[in-house]
Amino acid sequence: MTAYDVIVLAGGAAKRLGGADKPGVRVGGRALLDRVLAACAGAARTVVVGGRRATARPVVWTREVPEGGGPLAALGAGLRLTTAERVLVLSADLPFLGPGTVDALLAAAGETGREGALCTDPDGRDQPLVAAYRAEPLRRELALIATEHGSLAGLPLRLLTAELDLARVEAGPDAAFDCDTWDDIAAARARIREHGAVLDEWITSVKNELGIDLDVDTGVLLDLARDAAHGVARPAAPLTTFLVGYAAARASAGAGPDEAAAAVAEAARKATALALRWEAEAAASAGGDAAGEAKPDAGREGTGTP
After folding, report:
1. Which of 90, 100, 107 is nearest to 172 (CA)?
2. Contact 226/271 with Cβ under 8 angstroms?
3. Is the pTM of this model over 0.85?
4. I need a labelling partner for 191 at 20 to 30 A (CA). Which of 81, 125, 259, 280 fits?
5. Distance between CA 16 and CA 207 in Å, rounded?
């Protein structure tokens, strides 16, 4: 994938949120802005247009002129700090944006004759702040709009998108879901706790919080926890998975993510085999009692005591 830059628009008054700091509102324990930054971690340069704040990874900060001048002014300010041939443009309130959508937008923007690509929502509406643009035509059109209107402040994004040859990317109902109101925030928070999503959301949040870039087979770890709990004792499950992680970290010290993931898998395999041996021994002992077989008594062995 050719290098790209990203501009994240994180300004605005958030009037429908009562003036709250929208990029800092947390969904699934992570700020909305950090969730967006995680989706475009492959960018060569990340420019955030808005007020400075702590972020999960390094970014370049800038502000639109004048502050509060709207999305076109913010886009113009961010574009001045980019150098890549393609520029991803995102709003900071997209809790479910993922790398797959980012890749699809960049690929569509790279098609011959296209000047960019943007997402469409399930109702067919264009989402110009979930988009990828070729930098040269983007600079050209912004300059023409600024010349025609005297500045970019207060102007709608449709003045830009109407002049560009853009591909449309249907990325599903979640990719373009944005949080404009507290009801939207509540819906996003409820959605990540749904049964089919909560585990992935939690693991992703933990990895981001701990600064871990590691993809492991969570099914293997869950199976290990089950076997340890069933074959040994319930408290063995969390303690065993912790020890597996520790062992894997020692075994893969200085290695890359692939080697670390392999070390986790190998440690989990060994621990699972051990848990199953414990379970087999317990079953054998229980079976001996049921059949009326006498257990060896070390204290009486060889004494002739019946």
Report:
1. 100
2. no
3. no
4. 125
5. 32
Q: For 84-101, what is each residue's pLDDT tens digit?
A: 999 999 999 999 999 999
Edge-to-edge strands, sheet with 60-62: 60-62, 45-49, 5-9, 86-91, 126-134, 116-120, 166-170
Residues whose CB falls within 8 Å of the CB of residue 74, separated by 6 or more in sequence, listed in order: 9, 11, 49, 50, 64
Mean pLDDT for 185-196 is: 83
Distance from C-alpha of 44 to C-alpha of 30, rounded to nearest angstrom: 23
- Nearest 5 degrees, angle CA 222-CA 241-CA 230? 60
CB atoms within 10 A of CB 86: 23
Given a contact cutoff of 8 angstroms between Cβ atoms, the answer to whether 34 and 72 are in contact is: no
Neighbouring residues of 146: CB distance < 8 A, sequence distance ≥ 6: 76, 152
Encoded tokens for 184: 């939207």
Share of the chain above pLDDT 90, in %: 44
The alpha carbon torsion through 172, 176, 182, 183 (nearest 10 deg) reads -30
* Spatial distance between the Cα atoms of 111 and 166, rounded to a whole number of angstroms: 10
